[in-house]
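Limitations
The structure tokens in this dataset are predictions for the assembled complex, not deposited experimental models. Users should treat interface geometry with appropriate caution, especially where small molecules or nucleic acid strands are included. An illustrative entry is reproduced here so readers can see what is and is not provided.
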Amino acid sequence: MVDAVIVGTMALDSIETPFGKAEGVLGGSATYASYAASFFCRPGIVAVVGEDFPQDALQILGKRNISLDGLKKEKNAKTFRWQGSYEYDMNEAKTLKTELNVLASFKPDLPAEYRDARFIFLGNIDPQLQLDVLSQIRSPNLVIADTMNFWIEHKREKVKEVIKKIDVLLLNDGEARELFEMPNLSRAGKSALGMGPRAVIIKKGEHGALLFTRAAHFSAPSYPLENVVDPTGCGDCFGGGLTGFLAKTDDVSEWNVRKAMIYGSAIASHNAEGFGLEVLKKISIVDVERRFNEFKSIREF
Ligand code: AMP
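Predicted assembly:
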């Protein structure tokens, strides 16, 4: 039995930031999100990789009590690859190349034990695949979905179809403006709520995150990180950490969603301190709790 089903990409990333370079490192939305969720619960991955995907990467995830039963390995095919770069403003990645490869023909077929999961994270991936996964889940308690500009630009209507079927929408500030065609984030949040979700979370990179519901508004602070090396995967860590904490506590009240946002931010902030999973592999829940408490003191006045 898995506590949360996480669909997304498993990728080989090539990244360049003003502070260094990494070639072909383990990345992808499902990788980061499931790793982050595994601080709290047992996630099950739905993803696809090619023949070139390194075996040791799977061991890294397996050791974290992440179920890989929903992972497909395609012969004679290449893994999804993403190449991106950041300038001094590390809030926005510039996509240099996206190679869908094995993702282009992926047809998810969920293992039986995934179908009864109560918490679902539709990570950043083709919105059609998000819908395919969702259609195989029997009776979820909470469905959270993330997306990015690539899919908003290529499959806008499908992204909207997903939004109509979920409980919590995550997207970053630039994507919210792009999808709803309005510069004001409060209005974009309202437009998103108008499509069905009961909560919308707008991530603002190093500036924190905003939660909009019909009744309330919450602003999660940012962590004053001095050592940002590579923000790749921070959005996915935020979403995975949030989902994992909600699954562990089995409490979807607004108050608990606020807490979950801070746990997601705590994991994301650790992730930004190194390339790939470099830092997450070294920390434990004790470090996450410590940062959670620091966040608390930042917000008090
Ligand atoms: P984030 O920095 O949280 O937005 O996510 C970065 C991760 O998303 C990288 O590890 C990439 O492999 C992955 N990624 C990049 N482009 C896409 C895409 N179009 N669909 C799904 N995942 C992607």
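Some entries come with short summary sentences. For this one: The mean pLDDT is 96.
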